[in-house]
Specification:
heterodimer, A: about 190 residues, alpha/beta, Rossmann fold, seven-stranded mixed sheet, B: about 250 residues, TIM Barrel, globular
Chain lengths: ~190, ~250
Amino acid sequence: MIAIIDYKMGNIRSVENALRRLGAEWTLTDDADVIRKADRVILPGVGYAGEAMENLRSRQLPEVIRGLRRPVLGICVGMQIMCRHSDEGDVDCLDIFDAKVHRFPDSDEYKVPHMGWSRISNLESKLFKGMKGGEYVYFVHSYYAGLCPDTIATSRNGIMFSAALKYENFYGTQFHPEKSGDAGESIIRNFLEL
Amino acid sequence: MPAKRIIPCLDVKEGRTVKGVNFEGLVDVGDAVELGARYALEGADELVYLDISASREGRNTFTRLVERIADRINIPFTVGGGIATIDDAARLLDAGADKITVNSAAVANPQLVSDIAARYGSQFVVVAVDAKQIDGVWRITTHGGSKLTERELFEWVVEVESSGAGEIMFTSMDHDGTRSGYPCDTFARMADTLGIPVIASGGAGCVADIAQVLSVGKADAALAASIFHYGEISISQLKRQLSEQGIDVRL
């Protein structure tokens, strides 16, 4: 069973729909026991990192997540709060990935938020099995995790940033695989098959 | 910068698409879900569904349709048409829409944009802007171009950007339906003025028009309806041709 962590951060319906299209079964939960027993855990998230951490803490979930030993996938803000710290709300996060999250500096050269389809490169994980690099995936974000030893994919919006991160059994994507067409679908399938 | 986006627009009335090409193998072109899935398969980067139903039943049908679209489509989609309150927006978000577009209601009540953006984030709010030139001044129109307002185009888009709009979808009512191309100077000025993406709508007659507005006009995306619905060019053909002209598109 897949557990999608329900901590009231944005619309998780698109994640559920992506799992349904792949024929997977899931449960939407904030129950620590259910999360600990799940084969796969997804931490979705649309919104504000400060609020996301607050919502995890009020459910006593940070330690539960850090203690998981099965594959975990954070998406977008879900990935960002698995990093060390986020400038969005100046908040200490789950400290799983060795990266800090900053806001894209304002620039005339690129737009903030970074929104739309961008290529991912330097793919280094089974999460991207069957992909060569250069595939387009869908991003919507104003904050980014910099490059670090945990980076397993990069993308660029003016500056290069981590499109995906991995540490042991923990994975995170800055983009939305559930909205990234066929490329995204195969990334989710790969996650389920890890 | 992300790739330039190509966005087909589907008009929906009482839950059915109003116009659509007879794709080979597509049994029911009136089925908005099937048509959208076909466009997604062909390489559409996003879809826009506009509800043009006038009745309450039509609106309820549309909400159920949005749920079916969300179940089926694996790319982002925007819905609009008659969104006048934050509750309308909430209903469509809950149904699974990635973004909503507001138009006339935002002009009547500018607070609507900031209310929706504050609750659901800027990425959820696309403000559709229709304008026409009167004595050299771009003025905002509402209700499909039938009502002229006193608002000036550039003041208005700056105002809605500061209210929290995530994108602007601009249609020149002088060009819409003429298939004579877009006012590229105006688009370029808008792109230079704003920090948020601009979607060009209304006016495309051929590939060169779309190439122009994405390059000279600096638009981030092009929205089109009839050029696709009547099968004059497929989305995959269009994107290949844009790519050959050096425009970054997702192939």
